Amino acid sequence: xxxxxxxxxxxxxxxxxxxxxxxxxxxxxxxxxxxxxxxxxxxxxxxxxxxxxxxxxxxxxxxxxxxxxxxxxxxxxxxxxxxxxxxxxxxxxxxxxxxxxxxxxxxxxxxxxxxxxxxxxxxxxxxxxxxxxxxxxxxxxxxxxxxxxxxxxxxxxxxxxxxxxxxxxxxxxxxxxxxxxxxxxxxxxxxxxxxxxxxxxxxxxxxxxxxxxxxxxxxxxxxxxxxxxxxxxxxxxxxxxxxxxxxxxxxxxxxxxxxxxxxxxxxxxxxxxxxxxxxxxxxxxxxxxxxxxxxxxxxxxxxxxxxxxxxxxxxxxxxxxxxxxxxxxxxxxxxxxxxxxxxxxxxxxxxxxxxxxxxxxxxxxxxxxx
Length: 370
Description:
By secondary structure, this protein is an alpha+beta fold. It is built from nine helices and 15 strands. The strands form six sheets. A four-stranded mixed β-sheet has the order 10-11-15-14. Strands 1-9-8 form a three-stranded mixed β-sheet. It is elongated and about 105 Å long. It is found in: Cytoplasm. Residues 5-69 form the J domain.
């Protein structure tokens, strides 16, 4: 599936500034956040917007994207993956496996697991201890991970002699070649279980729902993750358990918007407060504080409350809160208010042509000298 152009995803031009990219991201991430938008594809669109912003907000990544697009510039010729043909395959084909194979019966660490946790805005700001329920594979308590019935033991596979691999001879135009393949008798494990454990049916692990305590770190942001050591999948052959990675999804707040460690708040004030000045209380994540509004403040003006943002999750200080002023225009005026505004306009030398005024009203005001 082809990815859309990141600039198209955010709806900005290729020459867009960082501020324009940031503004577009804030708008779209709020629009498509799965906790707000219940459309079927909202989550997919939210991730697409987030991915585009992470690429274009970083100067180095953006420069790389502008040059190479979605193609990875570090990707060379076939990497020996599912579709590639690596050097190990070449040696295996012509020389019967030139690399050292690991012991299939050696202890191995279990798989790492990932859990997505949706948390409240304020829990992300201040942190919290909580509990999650996670279905996971754990070492079987009956056979202690061997997969064999109690009182019995797995036996070394007689076909591969415990190596987990078989040499398969093959005639080719270059001569007789030897290939190594996983032993189909023991499925590459090097062991055969003749009497399987009835609890885990020979798997060595059982699926359980486990409660795990998780400490949400103060200052964690949307998309960041926490590693919980040893809470992943069960180890193999007595190996240690894997780790659990908790990915945090932070719900949006009805008043605050977060950007990094900074908080943004749109603050509506009246025309009189903007013109004459005032001292008002404004909300912050840590409670209300007083803010002085200077006389003549314009709509869109910004004020910074130092240290009133979010504590950095890595301990690098605390962000600020930015107050963005929005001057409210009154929509319903009584006659007294209208009269005062007309007088204000007259003194200012700017008399507006009022909507909805009849010719009779205009003549009447002219006669009265209004």
